[in-house]
Design goal:
Largest sheet: 14 strands, antiparallel
Radius of gyration: 37 Å
CATH topology of the largest domain: Porin
Number of domains: 2
Structural class: alpha+beta
Number of strands: 35
Strand content: 35-45%
CATH class of the largest domain: Mainly Beta
CATH architecture of the largest domain: Beta Barrel
Length: 728
């Protein structure tokens, strides 16, 4: 049986490479399969080698720049350069030199094995000598743009497939499907094709509209195997993909270009793609390289692997991108999986961790892995926090204002007699709600509530220490649902003590195995955050009161309210302790001032599956001043002005184990990096509020300014909210 080139359906006019050819190197056949200049900025096939089994290619063509080597292993007459072999070589690997055309793998080495001489096929051993030589030369992929002549739809000559399985561990074999416009015939093979020929790709041709070319053979429903019937995995369509093959412009002898059509022209697109994969991930086996190209192909025709397009159109851009589930490695080997990238993030309030950028900078050079264990660099630039959002949004502030108009201020607990009150929030823009029962008597006051502790206590204040909640927006976020209570007790005329507790919880559903009853039996309450506050006050003299406070915030899956999760979780269980002092001064019957300072100490255990090793002895601070005016206009109104630096980490160190690559055996390469969590940023919050709790109409306005760093003009957020409440 004779072998003949699978191209030359049409041969265009040869043109010299010149100015007219420089207009667009990335011609339509390249963009059709996702090969662009941007792709070549990252992948060029430089360390890979493509074997072109064809006629003698013109090694002197300027598009090959000394990268093409001719080998004439078979006796014959080789006195002229072959147009077909040169054209195929150009599609696979023409250099990116600013003129003419560019190949799929423009920096790959091209080893051209002349299996045709000037007149006919010469490799009477089905190419074995050339294959063996290519193995010694570490060729990555062999392109065979030829096939049997005589029988329509015949893809392989006798004995070829049995020869091919000898090279399944060495190279990918790319075969043109042929140009008789027929369905493939059964191909006899003594082995199991799905296991012994996973490195084989048969390539059909499509036109620029992604329709099968009229001349292209199709896979049909026949098989590769010892008998005509076989498992679906051994059907020819499972080895079949398509690529552009109509009127392909590529190189021709004598520094010229030519247009040709045929499956010969489609096949080298695939061979070039294999070279890109080999260059980027040299440890990929030939079987994996072929699998990637098949699984990332663009589906054409009937959904799934079909009898016309096989797996579909070669998609080089998709092949060079992560496939399947992308994970951040946290184990020793890529086979151990990792933490899903989609479930990993760092986000949260601006005021707490403006130094979050330091933690992200420590991940520079981080790689992630796909289903094939390939490593991809992850650009975290867009995640860096240069101008963070405010710790509380407009809806939260409007909700706070609405609640302040609806509920009475905190009782002092020092009046004679006993009182009981029940208060609940109406629906507020932030969606938060609460219900509170209050008890007060001679020398004591107690409150018990359910719902949003953060919203309630920001609106009403905590007697003797309102700063426990002010500026602790992260605690307010964590405590947006749950239970809370506080109490104050007078210790004589001058002293008092108080306590505040809040616990936010969520229902965690157990596994659904065993039906609904079993699932419900596994449902349990899991605390998300718990806050304890203690305070003591002492009246030094008339109108001057000293206060001391202690706070303890315990969070799960958060660090100071940061919604860091997965591989980027800053900690799993964190504990923040605050130690504070305050000074309150009455400046008259209607005016008072308060100053406070809190020192914070944070520790967090490392989260499972995270790159960070938790937090140990991070230090922070929070301080501010405020003025309060009671009844300045109507007698029932109140105005407050507060200037505060929110809770802010000032010193601390972190450790990150960053995956930066892998070796040939799949062992993940880590770099251990230490980073400072502190920041020299100076965040600031200024708020001015006015409330008038009139009997008929209550109204209020709040102005606030948040600046993540007063030293620059970035990260500034200004809000104005107003609310009115009409009582009927």
């Amino acid at each position: 049986m004779k072998l003949a080139p699978a191209g030359l359906v049409g041969f265009g006019v040869l043109v010299a490479m010149g100015a007219s050819a420089e207009a667009n190197e990335y011609r339509s056949d390249m963009t059709q399969i996702g090969v662009t200049k941007k792709l070549h900025n990252s992948y060029t096939g430089k360390s890979a080698a493509i074997g072109i089994f064809d006629g003698l290619a013109d090694k002197g063509h300027k598009d090959f720049e000394g990268r093409l080597f001719n080998f004439t292993l078979y006796q014959g007459t080789y006195t002229i350069y072959d147009a077909h072999g040169t054209h195929v070589s150009g599609t696979a690997g023409a250099g990116n030199n600013g003129s003419g055309i560019v190949g799929v793998a423009p920096d790959a080495r091209i080893d051209n094995y002349a299996v045709f001489d000037n007149t006919k096929w010469r490799a009477t051993d089905n190419g074995k000598a050339a294959f063996d030589h290519a193995v010694k030369r570490k060729v990555s992929v062999v392109n065979m743009s030829y096939g049997p002549s005589g029988v329509a739809g015949d893809l392989f000559s006798n004995g070829e497939l049995n020869l091919f399985d000898d090279y399944k561990d060495s190279m990918v074999l790319v075969r043109a499907a042929g140009n008789t416009g027929a369905n493939a015939v059964h191909e006899y093979y003594s082995g199991d094709a799905s296991t012994s020929l996973p490195h084989l790709l048969v390539v059909g041709s499509v036109n620029p509209n992604n329709q099968i070319s009229s001349f292209s053979n199709r896979p049909g429903v026949n098989c590769i195997g010892p008998v005509n019937t076989c498992d679906s995995s051994d059907m020819i369509r499972n080895f079949f993909i398509v690529a552009p093959g109509n009127n392909i412009v590529s190189d021709a002898p004598g520094n010229k270009l030519a247009s040709m059509s045929g499956t010969s022209m489609a096949a080298p697109h695939v061979a070039g793609a294999v070279a890109l994969l080999k260059d980027a991930w040299p440890w990929l086996t030939p079987a994996k390289q072929a699998e990637i190209l098949k699984k990332t192909a663009k589906d054409l025709g009937q959904k799934g692997v079909d009898s016309i397009y096989g797996w579909g159109l070669l998609n080089v851009a998709a092949a060079m991108s992560p496939s399947g589930k992308t994970v951040v490695a946290t184990g020793g080997n890529v086979s151990q999986g990792g933490t899903p990238l989609l479930s990993s993030n760092i986000g949260g309030s601006a005021s707490t961790l403006p130094c979050k950028k330091n933690a992200l900078d420590a991940l520079d050079g981080l790689v992630v892995f796909d289903d094939f264990g390939r490593d991809f660099g992850l650009d975290l630039g867009e995640t860096e926090v240069e101008a963070p959002p405010p710790s509380r949004d407009l809806a939260d502030r409007l909700g706070e204002l609405s609640v302040a108009l609806s509920v009475a201020p905190a009782a002092s607990g020092h009046d004679a007699g006993s009182t009981f009150a029940f208060q609940s929030s109406t629906e507020v823009p932030s969606g938060e709600a609460f219900a509170v029962a209050s008890f007060a008597g001679d020398g004591y006051a107690m409150r018990f509530g359910q719902g949003s502790a953060g919203l309630y206590f920001r609106a009403t204040g905590f007697p003797g220490g309102p700063h426990l909640m002010l500026g602790l927006g992260e605690a307010g976020e964590a405590l947006d649902q749950g239970s809370f209570a506080d109490a104050t007790f007078a210790l004589g005329e001058r002293a008092s003590i108080g306590a505040f507790v809040a616990s936010s919880s969520a229902l965690v559903q157990g596994a659904a195995e065993g039906g609904l009853a079993a699932a419900l039996s596994q449902t349990q309450a899991r605390p998300e955050a718990d806050l304890l506050g203690l305070q003591a006050s002492y009246s030094v003299s008339k109108g001057v009161t000293l206060g001391f406070s202690y706070g303890r915030l315990i969070e799960q899956d958060r660090v100071l309210g940061e919604a860091s999760t997965g591989a980027f979780a800053l900690g799993e269980g964190s504990t923040t302790e605050t130690f504070g002092a305050s000074l309150s001064v009455a400046l008259g019957d209607q005016v008072s001032a308060v100053m406070f300072y809190d020192y914070a100490l944070l520790n967090a255990s490392a989260a499972q599956g995270s790159l960070y090793q938790g937090a140990e002895n991070w230090h922070g601070q929070k301080f501010g001043v405020g003025l309060s005016f009671d009844g300045p206009i109507t007698g029932s109104d109140q105005m407050r002005i507060a200037l505060m630096q929110p809770l802010h980490i000032t010193s601390g160190h972190g450790i990150a184990n960053v995956p930066v690559g892998r070796d040939l055996e799949g062992n993940v390469i880590y770099e251990r990096r230490a980073f400072d969590i502190d920041s020299d940023a100076v965040p600031l919050e200024l708020s001015i509020s006015y409330l008038d709790r009139g009997e008929t109409v209550a109204h209020g306005i709040m102005l606030s300014l948040d600046d993540s760093d007063v030293r620059d003009n970035e990260g500034i957020n200004f809000n104005v909210v107003a609310a009115i409440k009409v009582n009927f």
